[in-house]
Recover the amino acids of this structure.
């Protein structure tokens, strides 16, 4: 059976697309799937650093598309999981060095071999966005509980639907339940009623995310991290599992007990 | 403390302010409807109206109007005859 191509997009930059791609991709691979992640942000390559693979790059996405190397040569295998690969973006090329048709062909080719092809979309809604979206069957829109991110997410959802990509799911990143309780942040319910797309998961704001990207090891490798658990649940839902909603809530005493007993 | 005083004087929590502002902003953003969808909307309006009255199909006008705090759809259609029963 052919795999699924998922594009992770947001409109606004800096909301956590690359972190989301790295964590979802890694978790799906940990579950035993064959996964390839494509960094489609040509000129601003980042997925390789977040995954800790920056020293292994030889070829890149544009090289593959231009036929300068075979697809297999252009893929970099993960350090821990051998069923996980990334295709890095070209750093010294321009966004229009590839086109949507070429991306579609590449994604089609990759889904024959991989269960999941996950595309890290660049910020913005120009050529780079169109390229990243072209080959996808499913879209994951990442937003944060801030007005600018939500407005851009709404715009992107509109563009995806106009391009006939209707399988759209939302991730709310950097949720701060303490601020929501205080009334100083829009809640999950508020955001869902504004954007009206189904929720895939809520990721709590956490220092652990910064620490894990510093090290180049995705959070889902660790146990007992709240943001990591949120990403694990998101990956499970993408895998078709029915995981109950975790509203990015605060850790309770019972959670600590469970964590203590489990680890 | 300062916050408590502000709340006392009726300042809304910022989360609520954000939600209300976004409701208006997103509505304005989404009003930029494509011609295809506009045409489909016109056809649907015509179909519904035609069940109750005979109308001049060519006369229909649909406009979206934006105020500062509201958005409205204004439609004008010329009626030729009203049926006694819905068809």
């Amino acid at each position: 059976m052919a795999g699924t191509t998922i594009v992770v997009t947001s409109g606004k930059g800096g909301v956590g697309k690359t972190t989301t791609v790295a964590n979802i991709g890694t978790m799906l691979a940990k579950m035993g799937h064959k996964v390839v992640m494509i960094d489609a942000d040509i000129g601003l390559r980042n997925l390789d650093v977040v995954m800790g693979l920056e020293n292994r790059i030889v070829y890149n996405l544009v090289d593959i598309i231009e036929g300068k190397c075979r697809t297999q040569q252009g893929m970099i295998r993960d350090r821990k999981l051998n069923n996980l690969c990334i295709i890095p973006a070209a750093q010294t090329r321009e966004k229009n060095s590839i086109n949507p048709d070429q991306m579609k062909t590449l994604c089609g080719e990759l889904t024959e071999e991989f269960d999941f092809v996950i595309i890290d979309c660049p910020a913005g809604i120009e050529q780079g966005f169109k390229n990243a979206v072209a080959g996808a069957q499913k879209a994951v829109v990442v937003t944060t509980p801030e007005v600018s991110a939500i407005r851009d997410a709404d715009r992107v959802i509109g563009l995806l639907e106009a391009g006939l990509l209707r399988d759209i799911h939302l991730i709310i990143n950097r949720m701060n339940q303490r601020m929501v309780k205080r009334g100083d942040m829009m809640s999950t319910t508020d955001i869902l009623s504004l954007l009206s797309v189904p929720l895939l998961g809520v990721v709590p704001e956490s220092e652990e995310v910064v620490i894990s990207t510093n090290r180049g090891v995705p959070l889902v490798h660790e146990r007992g991290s709240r943001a990591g658990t949120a990403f694990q649940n998101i990956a499970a839902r993408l895998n078709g599992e029915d995981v109950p909603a975790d509203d990015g809530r605060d850790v309770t005493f019972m959670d600590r007990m469970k964590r203590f007993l489990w680890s | 403390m300062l916050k408590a005083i502000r709340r006392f004087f009726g300042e809304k929590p910022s989360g609520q302010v954000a939600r209300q502002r976004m409701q208006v902003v997103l509505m304005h953003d989404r009003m930029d409807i494509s011609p295809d969808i506009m045409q489909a909307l016109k056809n649907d309006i015509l179909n519904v109206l035609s069940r109750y009255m005979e109308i001049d199909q060519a006369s229909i006008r649909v406009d979206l109007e934006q105020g500062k705090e509201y958005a409205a759809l204004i439609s004008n259609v010329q009626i030729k005859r009203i049926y006694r029963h819905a068809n």
In short: Chain A has one domain: 4-262. The two ends of chain A are 37 Å apart (CA to CA). Chain A is about 40% helix and 15% strand.
